[in-house]
Structure formats: structure tokens, C-alpha cells
Amino acid sequence: MPRWISNPKHNALIWCACVVLALATLAALCVSGIRLESNILKLLPASEQDPVLNAAVENFADQSSRKVILLVGHTDRETARDAARHVAEQLSRSAQFSRVRARTQSNPERTFYELYFPARAGLLPPDLLDELES
């Protein structure tokens, strides 16, 4: 084995050079803008990607990415409700949220409608949508 491999000073220099190279690569990626792709459909080959489905998924992701759902629980129902009210009050006072809804609607059909109606055109295949419109 060559002497420079067993020399701790050389090993430390090689290690430092690797760390500096990794940090420089990370810095270059940060400057150019790191984009994390969360759309699983982008993993499909180009021939398998459906542009309409892609647009619907992106639209749904854009709408849902601006929503936060917090669940507050406790073994005692009243304690859980009080804690949920307290959290809702704190979030309402914060400038980080444009709207805070602390209770679910009593009408599940209305909730379903509000969730899916805006994306209804993107959830159906184009041929079925044309058939429904005619």
C-alpha cells in the first residue's frame, strides 16, 4: 500500500476536498433553484403521460397545497373541542392564514360538492365530458 494512503494528514485533506466539493455542488444547485417534483405522473414515460390528466393533477395540487388541515384530539371530547377552539383562535389572529374554519360543515353533501365541483372537468375523460355536455 502506498505511504500517502496510510498518512492521516493526506486522508484528512482528501476528506476535506470531498466535503468542499459536495458543498460547492449544493450551493450551485441552490443558486440555480432546487425544484422538488411531487407529481408521480411525471415518472411515467412521455408516451404514457396524458396532458389532460396532468393538467387536472397539477390544478388539484395547486388548490390543495394552499390548505392546511390540523386535527386536535384528546380522550375527553370537551377538552378536545376547547383545544381546537383555542388553536383556531390563534390561527385566526395570525397573518399567515387568510381563512380559518374550525368546524366541519354539518352537510356532508355540500362539503363533497365544494371539494370536487371546481375540479369536475379535470376528473372526467374528455370523451365522457363531451358526451355529458351534448
Global shape:
flat
Average pLDDT for all residues: 80
What proportion of the residues is helical, as a percent range? Answer: 55-70%
Helix-strand pattern: HHHHHHH
Poorly predicted spans? none
Number of helices: 7
Number of DSSP strand runs: 0
Characterize the main sheet.
Answer: none
Gap between N and C termini: 80 Å
Strand content: under 5%
What is the gyration radius calculated from CA atoms? 26 Å
Helical/strand content category: mainly alpha
Structure description:
- With 134 residues, the protein is mostly helical.
- The chain is 60% helix and 0% strand.
- The radius of gyration is 26 Å and the shape is flat.
Please supply descriptive tags for the structure shown above.
134 residues; mainly alpha; 7 helices; flat
Quick gist of this model?
This protein has helices at residues 3-6, 8-32, 51-64, 77-93, 108-116, 120-123, 126-133. The protein is an all-alpha fold.
How are the elements arranged and paired?
Blueprint: H1 3-6, H2 8-32, H3 51-64, H4 77-93, H5 108-116, H6 120-123, H7 126-133
